[in-house]
Amino acid sequence: MALAKRIIPCLDVDKGRVVKGVNFVDIRDAGNPVEVAKRYNEQGADEITFLDITASNEDRATTVHMVEEIASEVFIPLTVGGGIRTCEDIRRMLNAGADKVGINTAAVFNPDFVKEAASRFGSQCIVVAIDCKKVSAPGETNRWEIFTHGGRKATGINAVEWAIKMTEYGAGEILLTSMDRDGTKNGFDLDVTHAISNATAVPIIASGGVGNLQHLADGVTLGHADAVLAASIFHFGEYTIPEAKAFMAAQGIEMRL
Amino acid sequence: MKTIAVIDYGMGNLHSVSKALEHVASNQRVVVTADPEVIRNAEHVVLPGVGAIRDCMAEIRRLGIDQVVQENIASGKPFLGICVGYQALMQDSEENGGVPCLAHFDGHVRFFGDNLVDEQGEKLKVPHMGWNQVKQTSNHPIWQGIEDNSRFYFVHSYYVEASHPQEVIGETVYGKTCHVALAHQNVVAVQFHPEKSHNAGLQLLKNFAEWNGQA
């Protein structure tokens, strides 16, 4: 008897459609979010993450509506991220049916927001999303830095130290994305996943770079992730969730089958 | 039409509980409410809850929900506590420096601790978040049609240690044995989130909606 590692398909949603970019650019259409979420729910996904990658207010209203629709039909945990900047944003998403919210840029500019959010809504629903890139030169000790604005702006913040700080501020979970790997299909950055998982007490979701099922397994066995997130390998039908689970279970990983 | 009242005391996500109940009990009316009269008249009552226990208990007392809960339990109608709504039924919780609760069940809510490890000595994360197996330690109507050791979705940093083993109907191991489901007469309470636990969870809610409160 043990806690299962989770597989989380991620829906990057832009203007009401699921899209998937490579290194945060070059977008490709993958369908209607509600249909996609229902398909993953039926396949046995352990959770669903919905990332609203558009910024305009109009699109945000569409997001709330879609979250409502997904939450009425999908009875597994749903995390919504993208543009969460205030407690009012969080309340709106929770009321729409989200179970957790992902806070990213707003945490970097105002770390106290994470504290406020955790004390008001509980740590269990506060996921801090960390987008990082490796900044150390080859041969140097590994060092990763936080980037904002879709990976365009460096912040000078050390990713491991930031993760520790965020859990102290009340984050209940960390969604860790390697921007070097995102969309590349070369696998997770296992070093940063391992470093952050071992440095913090909360669950870590590895994200960015999954190209095959071995990458998912490696995220858990080598990266010490508690959950693995992927988008394109599932969206475009290369693999199904049950295939991924069976593959990981065959390597001795505890899964919900 | 019979009514299932989901008690709203301003904490957390009631949407998912009510949506899941609507999904499994299409012949019953599901209302989310803090109105004592509506709760009194309902045939089934659910006490959900997420967040910190101190705030939950403060709201429960401020809104007079403690009275309503006691009346409802005493009336013999089926009553379900979920997550913090379960913990609130215990005597007290270690969270927030110690908080007295409703004391419907004897037992305490304890912190998992900072140095939680599994049987192999591997560090375990807190909160206990994700899908874990629930061993059905007694044959209760709420488990009908659910396979023993099915996985349910959990998210909590504090766990229940019940005083009376005969009230425990479900256990989960996470560093220690946690009492994740209790039952006594017309009251059932669970630590996990049935509304987020896919087929097993929906079945449990369906069982509750159809339950007459007799164990």
TrEMBL record, chain A:
GO terms for biological process: L-histidine biosynthetic process. The active site is at D12, D131. One of its GO terms (cellular component) is cytoplasm. It is found in: Cytoplasm. Its main location: cytoplasm. One of its GO terms (molecular function) is lyase activity. Pathway: Amino-acid biosynthesis; L-histidine biosynthesis; L-histidine from 5-phospho-alpha-D-ribose 1-diphosphate: step 5/9. Heterodimer of HisH and HisF. Belongs to the HisA/HisF family. This is Imidazole glycerol phosphate synthase subunit HisF.
TrEMBL record, chain B:
The keyword Electron transport does not apply. The keyword Hydrolase applies. IGPS catalyzes the conversion of PRFAR and glutamine to IGP, AICAR and glutamate. The HisH subunit catalyzes the hydrolysis of glutamine to glutamate and ammonia as part of the synthesis of IGP and AICAR. The resulting ammonia molecule is channeled to the active site of HisF. Its EC number is 4.3.2.10, 3.5.1.2. GO terms for molecular function: glutaminase activity; imidazoleglycerol-phosphate synthase activity; lyase activity. InterPro entries: Class_I_gatase-like, GATASE, Imidazole-glycPsynth_HisH. Its main location: cytoplasm. It catalyses: 5-[(5-phospho-1-deoxy-D-ribulos-1-ylimino)methylamino]-1-(5-phospho-beta-D-ribosyl)imidazole-4-carboxamide + L-glutamine = D-erythro-1-(imidazol-4-yl)glycerol 3-phosphate + 5-amino-1-(5-phospho-beta-D-ribosyl)imidazole-4-carboxamide + L-glutamate + H(+); L-glutamine + H2O = L-glutamate + NH4(+). PROSITE patterns: GATASE_TYPE_1. Heterodimer of HisH and HisF. Pathway: Amino-acid biosynthesis; L-histidine biosynthesis; L-histidine from 5-phospho-alpha-D-ribose 1-diphosphate: step 5/9. GO terms for cellular component: cytoplasm. The active site is at C83, H193, E195. This is Imidazole glycerol phosphate synthase subunit HisH. GO terms for biological process: L-histidine biosynthetic process. Residues 6-208 form the Glutamine amidotransferase domain. Keywords: Amino-acid biosynthesis, Cytoplasm, Glutamine amidotransferase, Histidine biosynthesis, Hydrolase, Lyase. It is found in: Cytoplasm.
